[in-house]
Amino acid sequence: MSTIFSFFSGKRANRRETIDFTGWDLHKNTEILLIFEGEYDILQGFKAKVRIGFNRKFSRSDQFYPANHLKFNSEQELQKKGSYQINEGESQTMNYDFSLNFSRQVKELHYLFGFLSYSLDETTYEENIYKAEGFPSDRMNSIFFARQYAEDTKPQGAESTTRNIGVNAVFNYSYDDRLLFDATFRTNASSQFGANQRWGNFWSLGAGWNMHNEKWLRSKEWFSRMKLRASVGSTGSQGNNAYQSLATYNYSEKNYENKLGAYLMGMENKDLKWQKKMDYNVGMDMSVKNNFNLVFDYYQSTTENLLVAFTLPPSTGFTTVQENVGKVRNTGIELSMSYMVLLRPQDRTFLTLSLRAAHNKNRVVKISDSMKAYNEKMDEMAESDSKLVTKYYDGVSMNAIWAVRSLGIDPATGREIYLTKDG
Questions:
Q1: Contacts of 207 (CB under 8 A, 6+ apart)
Q2: Do residues 191 and 161 lie in contact, with contact meaning Cβ atoms separated by under 8 Å?
Q3: How crowded is the C-beta side of 335, counted as CA atoms within 13 Å?
Q4: How far is CA 168 from CA 60, 112, 171, 186, 406, in A?
């Protein structure tokens, strides 16, 4: 048995400044990183590990333009000439990981590896924004020289907090470095999803065949690498908005009988789920005498509960809401080839020709009930306001462009004739 502990701490800072005539743009970033790691050998080939990480970042951006800058040439009011904006941001991430891993070689031909982990993390972010105006001289280049806040503005800000918890299991098996197999399973919960759909389960299976290690191909001395592989598995994504499933409020600038009011900023969706993607992939990796290399992949991926920000009618009081659209399928191929035309290691001279090609096709496989209702609302908007709208249908690409079919020009009037949906 053995025990290993390690501790790492570091601080990193950078500064970037851009000068534009009499104005300037300054960015400063500072990052503090602390990591504690511990490892304990329970048995031969069986280890326990713990990792605690802390990351804190500070950022500040200052943007200054004095009154004599070109952007204020058309401004008539002196107190509005010159501007200063400060963005101050601060973020912090705490993560905890505990894992067990097992590895063993059996009879020189079999290799086993297993991994099990439990993790927690929390990320917080806060940003403050200040905009001021009225800087008559380029020497008055600090924000406290400002005459006032920029017109129709006040100190602004944003904040977010996200939390995740997860369990991950991995198993790998290799036979004589010829046949390969791996399996994974992960279950995660995120604060970004609805109260009824916090958890998501994801898994994968993969297999590979190193043909170049087979005796009957090794003797050919042509292929330095020839591998066939296949995999199937599901993954998930969370989106960027920390509160995308919550009803969020903001305080109003107005009050009623000296009482502070609030208004709704975002609609609640307790059933907002993880966006899941099921991937199927088969491929080949080939290398001929280390000169010619080829990588080929055929894939098919189906995304379930695709997260989309839907446009809402103004009557709802909101412009968009996060919804799960249904299923979207992508199918495609990728090909990469390269050939080493010239290689002279002694004078570090080489020439390689490369070719890459890819093709992808997507279509909506199934739309959700909320999406059907959304399409109906879009039809109403198109008919009443004659506006361009976005709609989704089964069996049609998400990038499809819908338009009214033309029957040509009426020779009698010179106007174009359109085909209505009723024929």
A1: 179, 180, 181, 182, 229, 230, 231
A2: yes
A3: 5
A4: 37, 17, 10, 4, 56
Q: Could you identify the residue written with the tokens 């972010």?
A: 125
Q: CA–CA separation, 246 vs 252, rounded Å?
A: 19
- The end-to-end CA distance of the chain, in Å, is 81
Integer Cα distance of 20 and 170 in angstroms = 53
DSSP state of 138: T
Question: Strands, DSSP E only, in 176-291?
Answer: 179-190, 199-210, 223-237, 248-256, 259-266, 275-288
Closest residue by Cα to residue 273 from 201, 329, 204, 328 = 201
Is residue 305 left, alpha or beta, with left meaning phi > 0 and alpha meaning psi from -120 to 50? left
CB distance 128 to 155 below 8 Å: yes
Residues 273, 275, 279: CA angle, nearest 5 degrees? 140
Residue 17 has pLDDT above 70, yes or no: no
Distance CA 294, CA 334 (A): 11
- pLDDT tens string 363-407: 887 776 666 777 777 777 766 666 666 777 666 776 677 677 777
**Contact (Cβ atoms closer than 8 angstroms) between residue 339 and residue 353:** yes
The gap from C-alpha 118 to its chain's centroid, in whole angstroms, comes to 23
Chain segment 350-365, per-residue pLDDT in tens: 888 999 999 998 888 7
For residue 279, give the nearest of 308, 296, 303, 307 by alpha carbon.
Answer: 303
d(CA 128, CA 139): 25
Q: In this structure, what is the dihedral angle of CA atoms 377, 381, 387, 392, given to the nearest 10 degrees?
A: 20
CA distances from 275 to 167, 204, 294, 408 (A): 18, 16, 33, 44
Within 8 A by CB and 6+ apart from 59, the residues are 27, 28, 29, 30, 87, 88, 89, 90
